[in-house]
Amino acid sequence: MSAGGEPAVAGGAVAPNKIIAFGILGGLIGIYAAHFLDSMISPVFSFMGALGAICAIVWGADAVRRVCSYGLGTGVPSIGMLALGMGVVASMFGLAVGGIAGPIIAFVSAAIIGLIIGVLANKVLGMNIPIMEQSMVEIAGAGALTIVGLSTTMAGTFMFEEVLTFVIAPGYIAVIFIAGGMGILHPFNACLGPDEHQDRTLTLGFEKGGIAMVIAGLVSAVAGSAAMLPTIMIGVFIWYTSFAKFYELTKRDSYKILGSGLLPSEEELQ
After folding, report:
1. Where does the pLDDT of residue 9 fall: very low under 50, low under 70, confident under 90, or very high at 90 and above?
2. What is the Cα–Cα distance from 183 to 209, expressed in whole angstroms?
3. pLDDT in tens, 95-109
4. d(Cα 184, Cα 266) in Å, to the nearest integer?
5. Which residues of 182-211 are buried (b: 16+ CB within 10 A; e: fewer)?
6. Tens digits of per-residue pLDDT, 33-87?
7. DSSP string, 168-217
8. pTM
9. Is 60 exposed, middle or buried (0-12, 13-18, 19+ CB in 10 A)?
10. Which terminus in the chain has less CB density within 10 A, N or C?
11. CA angle, 186 then 183 then 171, to 5°
């Protein structure tokens, strides 16, 4: 729950507008590149859908850190699951009715759902978070692009019939839900506190996106996609490099690590 008032709003070296552009443009470019290059050149290029999903995940992680800096506490995991919940509904609607414009319709639908939920949270529930409406639009949009991007890599296309056959019917949509939700909620949940910094938090977003990409590659193998190997290899590379960077930033932000030794025995305390 929010404590209300005017807390220290999350800042960072990279402005929100730049990260929003990175998430939207990177997400859509990756999704459409995967779809068209898969059909026109080679199925191996469907890995680009997962790269688009990583862009959306990092955007969503930044949106979570901005809204949760108002004191959401235990609401951090919940808001990540909410993002993917809105994203699943919007994605399935957009892909089912949109055809080639499916990813864009999914994104716009998610934004509308997010706006409605943001208004209800502030006006009805009385959370009184100044950026709640905008943040819900961002988080929902990031969730939708994450769903579509990972689904495109798994199925080799974002056309609804193939996504239904290769992603939804076998139950892999649940894997996307968890992997995408963790990517959006976990970075701030792991880094929150007085020493939280944008670069460390978003680096963890890239790391979780790498894991999601590896999972998408494993699922694409079940579907017989030629993109399995590059998807897994690129995902592992992103995971390894971002985790190494996260470890470096964690050491930078920690004050001191001390070995306390064994706790004193009861006799020594007397």
Report:
1. low
2. 6
3. 999 889 999 999 999
4. 46
5. bbbbbbbbbbbeeebbbebbbbbbbbbbbb
6. 999 998 888 888 999 999 999 999 999 999 998 888 777 666 677 777 777 888 8
7. ITTTHHHHHHHHHHHHHHHHHHHH-STT--HHHHHHHHHHHHHHHHHHHH
8. 0.87
9. buried
10. C
11. 120
CB contact burial 127-166 (16+ within 10 A = b; e otherwise): bebebbbbbbbbbbbbbbbbbbbbbbbbbbbbbbebbbeb
**Confidence (pLDDT) at 110:** 92
Tokens 């108002």 — which residue?
Answer: 70
Cβ-in-10-Å burial (0-12, 13-18, 19+) of 241 comes to middle
> Please, where are the H alpha helices in the chain?
16-40, 48-68, 75-98, 102-119, 132-155, 160-163, 172-191, 198-222, 228-253, 266-269
Check residue 101 and report its DSSP letter. Answer: G
* pLDDT reading at 270 higher than 70: no
